[in-house]
Amino acid sequence: MKTVYTFVPSSGHKYPDHPERPGRLTLLEPRLDSFNAERIEPERATEEEVARVHQPKMIRAVEQACQDGPGIIDYAPTYVTRSSFEDAMLAAGGVMTCARAVMNGQAKNAFALVRPPGHHAEPHRAMGFCLFNNIAIAAQDTLTRGMKRVMVIDYDAHHGNGTQAAFLNDERAGFVSSHQWGIYPGTGWIDDAPHAKKRMANVPLHSLAGDQTFSRIADAVFEPMVKAFQPEMLLISAGFDSHWNDPITMLGLSTNGFYTLSKKLVDMAEEYCNGKIVFVLEGGYDPENVANGVAAVFSALTNSPVQVDADDASPYPEPDHEPRIAEIRKWHGFPA
Ligand SMILES: [Zn+2]
After folding, report:
1. How many angstroms is it from 284 CA to the middle of ligand 1?
2. 157 CA distance to ligand 1 middle (Å)
3. Residue 216, CB-side half-sphere exposure with 13 Å CA sphere
4. What is the DSSP string of 54-86?
5. CA 241 to centroid of ligand 1, rounded, Å
6. Are strands 233-238 and 150-154 parallel, antiparallel or unpaired?
7. 13, 54, 119, 120: the active-site residue
8. Residue 120 annotated among the catalytic residues of the structure
9. What percentage of the chain exceeds 70 in pLDDT?
10. Is 324 helix (H, G, I), strand (E, B) or coil?
11. CA dihedral 130, 136, 138, 144 (to 10 degrees)
């Protein structure tokens, strides 16, 4: 079966000197035809679908801010332009289109290449360069259409606070986030969701955590969480700001590290979710890292040889994360 993708570059959603810009995708776009995957057209999300995650008055506020013209709406800074409302609706729809194709069996797996990103957007507010929470909206859509449980795994360098907030009291939705500790938005410590052990896990990392650490947490945290929660689909918040030379963060993955991590997630979906997995673009602010990281994910999705020969191993030694991993496993009741 085939791998599919949607591409929503939102060229009108841009702001002077802002890192979340259309240029993030300019090195990726010419490579899209080389990924052994079929492009499908994104369907725009409806307001009813977005309202499964966001409060109606929040949706109205974002729409109004866009109508008012270009401007900054929070301290991150998050911006809007006149096209941003429609761009964000199409981005959310692009993720839903991918998730539906995989749920219906039209595709084996998928990658939604969309912007603006979504994982910081909370039910009652847009924040962190994100307007609507694309991945949470798609997760709710699959649950509305009959899935019993879905799980989001978020390896963006930042905590997926918006997705955590959206799922906090939804027993059908699992959430796991690895992120650099001590940076924006400041949430995501191990004990953030004490009522939801084995359903919601946070993996706060020391800066420069890299390929070895991510491989280890995939085995020691992600996999037992998937096994315990038994989702029918995995949705992955794929942020390529976890690359070691991202301009705004300090984690330590390389392109090969993104491949290994993504392959482990694809294998987990194979073992526990009948192969159903949808990757969703979140952050990543160096265009070359985004293009190489996306290529690495497609290699994992299509079981093709690594399509990148990026010589970009991190030059930094990795800090020891074993005590942190042990603490996380203990919190969730996994054996030492
Ligand atoms: Zn990020």
Report:
1. 6
2. 5
3. 18
4. S-HHHHHHHHHHHHT-SEE-SSS--EE-TTHHH
5. 6
6. parallel
7. 120
8. yes
9. 99
10. helix
11. -150
